[in-house]
Design goal:
Layout: H1 3-25, H2 27-38, H3 41-62, H4 68-85, H5 91-106, H6 121-129, H7 136-146, H8 152-159, H9 163-179, H10 192-211, H11 222-238, H12 243-256, H13 282-297, H14 303-316, H15 325-338, H16 342-355, H17 358-369, H18 378-391, H19 394-406, H20 411-425
Length: about 425
């Protein structure tokens, strides 16, 4: 290979890697900013995709820019101008074109004046995606796609539906935003209480996807965890006396305090009882407990506060045996009263398994195992397998582990389940 060809190959590899990183880290930020300028969700997405398409060759030729985000913002804005020029017969789009051209020629950084302390473009985008004109599943899916940067496949896995089904759902949501002329803004104070609940759910789903990635070779996606925490902090700034906003922020902080301890140096999964608690982030724990205390003092309990209280009990126990599992099970029971979902019930059953014993938990698990809507819910079978193992029913546990493994798309989680299955095969049967 010639020296020139070798250089070209390295430059192309560097450019591809930089574009991939920018897509994850800067794509949602550029998209949110572009939507504010063009006023059209689909146009902004198309222009951004155009910008990414030309970035590889440009960065291969000229080198990766010092600020990928600034480069992409300018490139996407110019691609939007090109698209708008082809459609300038529409008056509204002609006005947008004139504004974009003015910004591009002046390279002006627009200053946003708002009564609200939140002027963050991505938070505006969250509220747009969570507009009540959209159905609940569309709000969550679209926000995860636009703000969190998740792929359609990752979102589909989270919703237990096929990727084409999720793709159609997202397209319909974007079309609804355009047809209903949904504004791109943080709602007024009068609208906020009604709108904020849906936003909380979206932010928590973004955090969950980061904390335990649906797919890939890493258990944790720190970019999504950080993004959810950032959005949660901004929302807490806006809603200082909203107990549930504070509850969600506390919950995410307490979970995130264990982020670096959840895998070993080789990237293998570590369950809670295997983690080195000295690696937990004590500053995050202190902040989470402080915010939870603020939420509790408001005396308006809700699902996120209850979850945060459960997580606090996990963290405050010195080890698994010292954890107050009875109190955790009771809190999950209270949580089920306000959020009666299969996920909550599964967690309650797991807590009962530690508080009362695996046999009692297996009896409670039977209705969930018989529910056809949960037949592809991996945590259900992983929990079932662990309970069966603890009762000594190794043959049944083997089958449950195999089913959980078949449903696992994250490499780290699959490796841990395979390790447990292997350990099970090496465990001698109990004496008669």
């Amino acid at each position: 290979m010639s020296r020139g060809a070798d250089w070209s190959g390295r430059a192309e590899a560097v450019a591809h890697a930089a574009v991939a990183q920018a897509y994850r880290e800067d794509g949602p930020k550029v998209l949110a900013s572009l939507i504010r300028h063009v006023g059209d969700f689909q146009l902004a997405e198309d222009a951004l995709q155009d910008a990414f398409a030309v970035a590889v060759e440009a960065w291969k030729r000229d080198g990766v820019p010092d600020s990928a985000r600034a480069w992409l913002t300018t490139a996407a804005r110019r691609k939007a101008i090109d698209r708008l020029r082809r459609e300038r017969s529409v008056r509204a789009r002609a006005e947008r074109l004139a504004e974009l051209v003015r910004l591009d020629e002046s390279e002006e950084q627009e200053i946003v004046h708002e009564d609200s302390p939140l002027v963050d473009d991505r938070l505006r985008l969250v509220f747009t995606c969570c507009h009540p004109a959209l159905d609940s599943s569309a709000r969550i899916a679209l926000t995860l796609r636009a703000v969190g940067g998740l792929t359609t496949g990752e979102i589909a896995a989270a919703f237990l539906v096929s990727e084409p089904t999720m793709g159609k759902r997202i397209v319909r949501a974007k079309r609804k935003i355009a047809d209903a002329h949904i504004p791109y803004r943080v709602p007024s104070d009068a609208e906020l209480p009604e709108r904020v609940r849906g936003v909380l759910r979206v932010i928590y789903l973004i955090f969950n996807e980061g904390y335990t990635a649906t797919e890939g070779t890493q258990l944790v996606r720190s970019d999504l965890c950080n993004e959810a925490l950032r959005l949660g902090s901004l929302l807490a700034e806006l809603r200082k006396d909203d107990a549930e906003v504070l509850g969600l922020l506390a919950l995410m902080l307490l979970h995130d305090s264990r982020r670096t301890a959840r895998t070993d140096r080789e990237g293998r999964y570590l369950a809670l009882d295997q983690q080195d608690r000295s690696l937990w982030d004590r500053n995050r724990i202190a902040e989470g407990l402080r915010i939870l205390e603020r939420a509790v003092r408001l005396r308006r309990p809700g699902e996120y506060q209850l979850q945060a209280a459960i997580t606090a009990l996990h963290i405050q126990g010195t080890d698994i045996e010292a954890t107050d599992w009875s109190q955790i099970a009771a809190l999950y029971g209270a949580l089920a009263a306000v959020s009666p979902t299969a996920v909550v019930e599964l967690n309650r059953i797991a807590a009962v398994g530690f508080a009362t014993g695996p046999e009692a938990a297996l009896e409670l698990l039977a209705p969930l195992l018989a529910d056809p809507s949960l037949e592809r819910y991996q945590p259900l079978y992983a929990t079932h397998a662990d309970l069966l193992r603890r009762t000594g029913r190794f043959s049944d546990a083997t089958e449950a582990y195999r089913r959980a493994i078949a449903l696992t798309t994250n490499t780290v989680e699959r490796a841990e389940l395979e390790r447990r299955l292997s350990d099970l095969a090496d465990t001698p049967p109990a004496s008669a």
